[in-house]
């Protein structure tokens, strides 16, 4: 696990990189005035960040293993992680109804107070109801229509964005599956589930008074921001700065996409990884 | 189309026979309801509320049989163990209650419209029974707290007070015995997630719903404040700041530190409780807080300033003790020419209720310290007496958003109360207040202004906020930061200027104007597939009780925000423009007068509950259609502040049409609105106000007199104050009608004030009640005798009686010693050793503050002093005009009030009214030993401005006051003496016969003699004026000369002349000048060349000027109304 965070040293030493090498051991992320054991400091901080990531993103098994390996105390209640995992898995599987019920069980106020999130889930549920209709000719569209009428339609009069979303979803029923526009086709992709699941996860964390996201996401953004700033002010830094994760791909993405898509990609990548780790 | 069917789950729930099937149905109902407002509506209309109440009560009865004691008890229990123990005992009843509670919570999330029927159906009480963590599983406690918070949150959006039922929520939560459950939750020391969630919910609940006086007091009594203070202390300790106290045993008692994210919630909850001086002092002196922030570390010195420099310089060199001050930017202390505006600012303007004993000490220090000023040094926040202030400043400067706001808010509350809490804090070379101001000027005020600005910019771009973030949003920060600014700069000219320099006026005016922009209602009505024909519903509905009808939806959050901003901005502007005319001018030039006048409109009279329904969002923002009470009160305050400027009063305010809305507000049913309106009226009725005639013709005399007769102390006082201004230089007809309307009987009764009469009730009571020293009955306006002694024993007095922290206060007698020792350094110019105050001293100080704030007898006494002062000034203004009718008016007043009775009353004011045993009473004794330190130039006025108890003069000699003994040592406050004497002066200003009549009141004249040596210069001056008027010669006719000579002789016989001659050596020129005039006159009358007395010195003019003082005095006596 620690492999993912070790930066790869490049052979051609740019002055900047030499400086990086110099400061590396003392790269502390947490100001902890009472820390006496300086030797273990970087490792401990890195472990803490990774642990934080596992907990926020909901990988209880991995968190347990890391805790064992690195000899640190898990900072969160395992129970609370597994609740979130169950909800996430339900959404990933398309079982939205059970996800909603689980969310209500966990904290009934989440969906009551966040109408946008609730609408996203209901919309996803509607898509799941529509899917069988458009894939097989024989399926009855009535449940989907009823659901749209009773659950989604009342809300769209309140919020214009909801209206657009619902219209888009309903148009799935109209257009043939083969010639869908990209924005409609996107609704049928698993990525939508992952996106919603991630939002739900953030909402739950926020309601529990925790950070919405793993700290490492902030750090990645901070790094990109700093790099951009440095480039803007023409500082002498290497033309290419990699995250050291999987080489050029990361590098390209960071520069071309900026940060908006960072999360999605991250999620996707780690989502895959999660499957390996969880199962 | 069919009507919306009742939710199936509700029907199932009704039909369910077993507890298991009920639970299943409830689960279904829950999932049906969450996030579905339409289903919630249908549910409530089909009687869900009553059903839920029944179910909760039923489960309570069933579950109550087996009490869970100690579910959360074991301190060492880990989360898992506890959960399993709870799960083992988790019964069906618990599950039923949990699901019910969640359903209620979901309904409450729907907002005000849904909470109203819930409250009307009585949902709160059954919910509250599931709060105590000793008896209830933790999960259920969390659910209950969430539900309560959802209700409280919805209720907090009701700024129009649509339905009285909404106020009942907090009353039920914050009262015995349920308030105890909240403390139990806070007292848990477990660090498991679920316990911490409970605690953070309690903090939020307190911050959201705790209001008024009763709620905080109930929480204080239950120990909640101490518990939260300990949590805060633990958190600060865990952060490891430099210079924290470490040696106290209290530190080991600290609870485990709460998570960082809790700190701002804790601070906000504490802020909700520390809204009065006493409770704020309780927080600062809390053992946990005071042990980590030990109060002033001064060891000992002859000059405290020098030590200061030393202490700080050494810490700069790194060898001294580390202090939190290193975390803040260093400012050099103010030195050089004393700027009066600065040094006066803090203590001087406090109303007499607060400033008396405390500021006195501070300024004594200031003067002695200023005399031996040493080298310039740096300010330290120890100026404030506790490093808690430093820590909060540091927090405010380093955090952002809500964390910053909560620190700023708490800081503001402490600073407001600091003159009472830290009277001992050592002064800098220019006095403590000046350096305190300096720190706040540079470190805090600009910060708050910037906070408002930032929040304003953020909200401008993105005004919509998801409800779950409402409390964290820039919207809330904007509202609260403006209120904080208002509170902070109140009574401090320096800080007001600092706010102006930071650009506050422009910003606030801009925000104020923007609140009148229309906001579209984003809460469109949901589309429904069913018919919404209301008639049909009515037909089918069988149960039409309040619990089955949706309440009013209230205003949308955006509109509520706009209205709150309107109120807060005006409040802040009012405080910024409190003193300085130029600032007021700048405010007016920003063009906000129309906003103010519009904000003075009240809602149309309609049956309760229909106000908001009839108001669309756009209407609600249009001030002309009405404003909530908070806005009206703020607008009154701003109008009052602006009307202090004569210039503005005669131009912008009359142009803006201020008089009419204010007049209408006089009849508003809400008391705080009445207060606000009468306060503005005080200024609008001044003799030079162009609105005066309009208001008098409108009939405001009658209304003001009615208000003066009301039972509300403040309203009584303010109305009399307004009437005082009204009669000044008014036509005789107006004066007479005003006097008639007010009623001679009422005036006499007010002036008499049982308490002030040493010969009546007091002695009687002492005689009859034996050991009980006071039998105070004071008539209220309705003429009822209010037994103040018993009132004093009412709940207000036992605030600490059941405190869990062992703070129970000892008996009064036992406190005596500690108060003495506490006071000792305050009244010695050079304290030999300022030691770290002990807990005992803290408690003594708390006692003092509490007495000032809560003791019914003390408050009644203060009120009586204030109202008598106003009544005397009212009479004085009736007879003060130097017109031809003046003597007739004097006759009228004397006849109406019964001259002899009036003179008796005046005599009772002048006499030292100490209810000592009879023998002593007969010997006129010196009322106050003339204390040299108190009469130094410049300081006397400050002291004199505050009524005080005699112990303040001589505390180190007399035993300190206990509640009972305070009243036995009352001497007449200087203000009251001044008013009394000036009334006599004006009676002597009539015709010769009236002077003669006055002189024939030998006891009255004798009573003035000892007052010639009163420490208050104004009193000595007034007495000289009296003598001056008595020997005045109307004309040079022989008759007049004979009678004048006669009067002069009487003055000599009475001993007045001797006293006046002594006054020739007075340290005040004013007194000396007056005395010289009198001596000259007497010599002219009685001396060799009598017969040529007369007006080279044109004393008539002097007199005219003098007469004007009461009424005109915008900066004089009259000004205090606006500074309150």
Automatic annotation (TrEMBL), chain A:
Ranges of residues in domain CTLH: 80-137
Annotated spans, Disordered: 1-29, 238-279
Name this protein carries in UniProt: CTLH domain-containing protein
Cited InterPro entries: CRA_dom (IPR013144), CTLH/CRA (IPR024964), CTLH_C (IPR006595), LisH (IPR006594), Ubq-SigPath_Reg (IPR050618)
Composition bias, Basic and acidic residues: 14-25, 246-258, 268-279
Pfam families assigned to the protein according to its UniProt record, in alphabetical order: CTLH, LisH
Source taxon at top rank: Eukaryota
Compositionally biased intervals (Polar residues): 1-10
Role description: Involved in the proteasome-dependent degradation of fructose-1,6-bisphosphatase.
Source species: Rhizodiscina lignyota
From TrEMBL, chain B:
SUPFAM superfamilies: ARM repeat
One term under GO cellular component: cytoplasm
UniProt entry keywords in alphabetical sequence: Cytoplasm, Nucleus, Repeat
Nucleus recorded as keyword: yes
Compositionally biased residues, Basic and acidic residues: 1086-1104
Domain of life: Eukaryota
Compartments in which it is found: Cytoplasm; Nucleus
Residue ranges of the region described as Disordered: 910-937, 1086-1124
Any Gene Ontology biological process: proteasome-mediated ubiquitin-dependent protein catabolic process
The keyword Repeat is assigned to this record: yes
Primary site of residence: cytoplasm
Protein name: ARM repeat-containing protein
């Amino acid at each position: 696990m620690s492999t993912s965070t070790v930066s790869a040293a490049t052979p051609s030493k740019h002055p900047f990189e030499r400086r990086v090498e110099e400061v590396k051991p003392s790269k502390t992320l947490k100001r902890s005035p009472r820390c006496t054991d300086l030797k273990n400091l970087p490792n401990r901080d890195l472990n803490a960040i990774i642990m934080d990531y596992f907990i926020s993103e909901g990988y209880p098994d991995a968190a347990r293993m890391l805790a064992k390996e690195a000899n640190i105390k898990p900072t969160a209640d395992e129970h609370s992680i597994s609740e979130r995992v169950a909800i996430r898995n339900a959404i990933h599987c398309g079982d939205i109804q059970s996800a909603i019920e689980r969310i209500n069980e966990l904290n009934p106020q989440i969906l009551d107070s966040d109408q946008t999130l609730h609408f996203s889930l209901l919309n996803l549920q509607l898509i799941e109801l529509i899917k069988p209709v458009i894939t097989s000719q024989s399926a009855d569209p009535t449940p989907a229509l009823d659901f749209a009428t009773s659950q989604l339609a009342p809300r769209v009069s309140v919020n214009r964005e909801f209206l657009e979303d619902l219209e888009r979803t309903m148009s799935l029923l109209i257009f043939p599956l083969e010639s869908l526009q990209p924005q409609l086709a996107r609704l049928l992709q698993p990525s939508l589930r992952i996106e919603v699941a991630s939002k739900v996860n953030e909402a739950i964390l926020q309601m529990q008074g925790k950070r919405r996201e793993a700290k490492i996401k902030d750090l990645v953004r901070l790094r990109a921001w700093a790099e951009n700033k440095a480039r803007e002010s023409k500082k002498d830094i290497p033309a290419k700065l990699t995250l050291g994760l999987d080489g050029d791909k990361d590098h390209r993405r960071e520069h071309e996409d900026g940060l908006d898509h960072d999360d999605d990609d991250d999620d996707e990548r780690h989502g895959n990884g999660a499957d390996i780790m969880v199962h | 189309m069919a009507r919306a069917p009742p939710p199936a789950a509700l029907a199932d729930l009704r039909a369910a026979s077993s507890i298991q099937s009920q639970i299943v149905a409830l689960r279904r109902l829950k999932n049906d309801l969450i996030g579905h407002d339409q289903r919630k509506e249908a549910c409530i209309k089909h009687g869900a509320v009553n059903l839920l109440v029944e179910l909760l009560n039923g489960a309570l009865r069933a579950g109550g049989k087996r009490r869970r004691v100690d579910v959360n008890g074991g301190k060492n229990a880990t989360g898992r163990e506890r959960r399993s123990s709870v799960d083992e005992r988790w019964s069906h009843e618990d599950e039923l209650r949990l699901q019910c509670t969640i359903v209620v919570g979901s309904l409450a999330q729907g907002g005000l419209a849904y909470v109203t029927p819930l409250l009307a159906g009585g949902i709160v009480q059954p919910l509250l029974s599931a709060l105590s963590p000793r008896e209830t599983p933790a999960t259920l406690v969390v659910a209950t707290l969430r539900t309560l918070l959802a209700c409280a949150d919805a209720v907090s959006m009701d700024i129009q007070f649509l339905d009285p039922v909404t106020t009942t929520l907090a009353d039920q939560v914050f009262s015995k015995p349920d308030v105890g459950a909240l403390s139990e939750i806070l007292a848990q020391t477990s660090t498991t997630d679920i316990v911490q969630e409970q605690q953070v919910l309690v903090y939020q609940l307190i911050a959201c719903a705790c209001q008024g006086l009763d709620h905080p007091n109930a929480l204080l009594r239950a120990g909640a404040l101490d518990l939260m203070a300990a949590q805060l202390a633990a958190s600060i300790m865990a952060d490891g700041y430099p210079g924290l106290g470490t040696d106290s045993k209290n530190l080991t008692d600290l609870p485990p530190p709460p998570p960082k994210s809790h700190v701002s919630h804790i601070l906000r909850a504490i802020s909700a409780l520390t809204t009065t001086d006493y409770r704020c002092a309780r927080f600062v002196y809390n053992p946990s807080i005071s042990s980590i922030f030990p109060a002033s570390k001064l060891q000992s010195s002859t000059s405290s300033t020098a030590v200061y420099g030393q202490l700080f310089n050494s810490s700069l060199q790194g060898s001294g003790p580390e202090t939190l001050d290193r975390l803040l930017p260093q400012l050099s202390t103010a030195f050089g020419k004393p700027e009066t505006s600065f040094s006066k600012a803090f203590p001087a303007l406090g109303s007499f209720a607060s400033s008396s004993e405390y500021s006195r000490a501070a300024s004594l220090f200031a003067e002695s310290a200023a005399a031996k000023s040493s080298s310039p040094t740096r300010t330290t926040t120890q100026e404030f007496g506790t490093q808690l202030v430093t820590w909060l400043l540091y927090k405010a400067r380093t955090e952002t958003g809500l964390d910053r706001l909560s620190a700023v808010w708490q800081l503001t509350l402490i600073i407001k109360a600091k003159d009472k809490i830290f009277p001992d804090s050592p002064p800098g070379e220019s006095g403590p207040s000046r350096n305190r101001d300096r720190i706040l000027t540079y470190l805090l005020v600009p910060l708050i202004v910037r906070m408002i600005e930032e929040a304003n910019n953020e909200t401008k771009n993105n005004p919509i906020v998801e409800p779950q973030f409402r409390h964290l949003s820039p919207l809330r920060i904007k509202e609260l930061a403006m209120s904080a600014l208002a509170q902070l700069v109140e009574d401090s000219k320096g800080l007001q200027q600092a706010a102006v320099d930071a650009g506050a006026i422009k910003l606030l005016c801009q925000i104020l104007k923007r609140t009148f922009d229309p906001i579209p209602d984003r809460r469109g009505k949901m589309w429904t597939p069913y018919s919404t024909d209301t008639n049909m519903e009515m037909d089918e509905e069988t149960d039409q009780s309040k619990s089955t009808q949706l309440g009013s939806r209230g205003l949308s959050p955006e509109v509520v925000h706009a209205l709150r901003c309107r109120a807060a901005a005006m409040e802040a502007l009012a405080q910024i423009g409190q003193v300085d005319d130029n600032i007021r001018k700048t405010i007016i030039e920003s063009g906000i007068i129309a906003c103010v006048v519009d904000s003075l409109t009240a809602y149309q009279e309609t049956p309760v509950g229909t106000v908001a329904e009839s108001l669309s969002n756009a209407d609600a923002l249009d001030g002309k259609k009405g404003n909530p009470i908070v806005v009206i009160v703020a607008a009154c305050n701003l109008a009052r502040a602006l009307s202090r400027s004569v210039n503005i009063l005669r131009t912008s305010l009359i142009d803006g049409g201020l008089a009419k809305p204010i007049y209408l507000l006089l009849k508003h049913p809400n008391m705080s609105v009445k207060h606000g309106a009468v306060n503005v009226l005080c200024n609008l009725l001044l003799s030079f106000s162009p609105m005066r005639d309009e208001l008098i013709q409108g009939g405001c005399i009658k209304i003001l007199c009615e208000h003066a007769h009301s039972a509300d102390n403040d309203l009584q006082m303010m109305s009399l104050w307004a009437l005082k201004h009204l009669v000044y230089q008014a036509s005789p007809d107006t004066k007479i009608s005003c006097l008639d309307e007010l009623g001679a009987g009422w005036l006499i009764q007010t002036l008499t004030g049982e308490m002030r009469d040493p010969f009546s009730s007091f002695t009687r009571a002492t005689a009859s009640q034996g050991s009980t020293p006071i039998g105070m009955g004071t008539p209220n306006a309705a003429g009822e005798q209010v037994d103040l002694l018993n009132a004093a024993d009412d709940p207000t007095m036992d605030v600490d009686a059941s405190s869990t922290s062992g703070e129970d206060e000892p008996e009064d007698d036992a406190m005596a010693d500690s108060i003495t020792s506490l006071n000792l350094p305050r009244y010695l110019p050079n304290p030999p050793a300022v030691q770290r105050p002990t807990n005992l001293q803290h408690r003594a100080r708390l006692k003092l503050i509490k007495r000032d704030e809560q003791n019914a007898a003390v408050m009644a006494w203060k009120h009586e002093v204030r109202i008598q002062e106003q009544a005397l000034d009212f009479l004085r203004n009736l007879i003060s005009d130097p017109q031809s009718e003046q003597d007739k008016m004097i006759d009228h007043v004397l006849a109406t009030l019964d001259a002899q009775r009036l003179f008796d009353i005046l005599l009772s004011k002048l006499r030292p009214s100490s209810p000592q045993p009879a023998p002593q009473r007969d010997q006129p004794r010196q009322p106050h030993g003339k204390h040299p330190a108190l009469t130094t130039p410049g300081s006397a006025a400050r002291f004199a401005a505050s009524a005080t108890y005699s112990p303040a003069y001589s505390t180190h000699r007399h035993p300190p006051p206990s509640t009972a003994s305070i009243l036995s040592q009352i001497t007449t406050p200087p203000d009251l003496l001044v008013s009394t004497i000036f009334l006599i002066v004006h009676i002597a200003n009539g015709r010769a016969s009236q002077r003669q009549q006055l002189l024939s009141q030998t006891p009255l004249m004798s009573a003035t003699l000892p007052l010639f040596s009163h420490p208050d210069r104004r009193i000595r001056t007034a007495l000289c004026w009296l003598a001056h008027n008595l020997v005045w010669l109307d004309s040079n006719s022989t008759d007049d000369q004979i009678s004048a000579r006669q009067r002069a002789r009487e003055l000599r016989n009475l001993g007045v002349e001797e006293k006046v001659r002594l006054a020739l050596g007075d340290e005040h020129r004013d007194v000396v000048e007056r005395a010289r005039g009198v001596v000259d006159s007497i010599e002219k009358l009685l001396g060799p060349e009598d017969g040529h007395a007369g007006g080279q010195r044109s004393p008539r003019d002097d007199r005219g000027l003098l007469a004007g003082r009461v009424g005109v005095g915008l900066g004089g006596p009259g000004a205090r109304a606006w500074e309150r």
